Every structure is written in C-alpha cells, then in structure tokens.
Amino acid sequence: MIEMKPIEVQGQNTIGIEVKLPKTTLLAVTTEKGYIMCGALDVQLLNERLKDRQIIAGRATGVRSLEQLLDAPLESVTFEAKKLGIQPGMKGSEAILRML
Question: What is the pLDDT of residues 5-49, one digit of tens each?
Fold first, then answer.
C-alpha cells in the first residue's frame, strides 16, 4: 500500500510518502528541490553513479514513521545537499526547511 499525505514543517507544506512492503516500510518526505528518506536510500549511488543528476537528498536510519524521519538526525547526505548547508547529524526537519 502507498500513502501520500501533506506534512507541515514550520508552516511550510511538504509531502510525506509511505510505501508498505513485506517486512519493511519505505519512508520519504519531499519538497520540489529534494527529499529525505529512510535507510533504504543509497546516498553513495546518488553521489557516484547518478552525480550528473545533482540530487539533493538525506538519509536517516532506524526510523519507523514520517514523524521519526523528521525528528531523526541524518546519517548521510548527498554532495548537492551539502551545498545547501545540509550536514550529517542535522535533524530531518531542518534539512527539509533548507530544501524549501
């Protein structure tokens, strides 16, 4: 099952996406510029093989809900995210605000 719902971050609107799969749930919060995602995101792939796409993204591990994804520290971020001042250790919600 796939669920999309509006998520408000400090008065700004974003979209939360949950994809329920067998034994796991994929989680993402997205803006028009970029997104944060659960541990399924392969930041190394985005930075190396898809570098030309200049993807702005961050990864948080150990999260089980969209709320936890926004509250968790990012474990890794893409090179393009770093250009916006998004750093590992930053809360997901802070990263999203920089992507708006």
Answer: 999 999 999 999 999 999 999 999 999 999 999 999 999 999 999
Q: Please identify, in words, the CATH class of the domain defined by 2-99.
A: alpha beta
Q: Which tens digit of pLDDT belongs to each residue from 52-99? A: 999 999 999 999 999 999 999 999 999 999 999 999 999 999 999 999
Helices (H), 1-100: 43-48, 66-71, 79-83, 92-99
Which of 51, 52, 81, 67 shows the shortest CA–CA distance to 16?
67
Contact at 8 Å (CB) between 38 and 60? Answer: yes
**What are the C-alpha distances in Å from 88 to residues 1, 58, 72, 77, 100?**
30, 8, 11, 6, 18
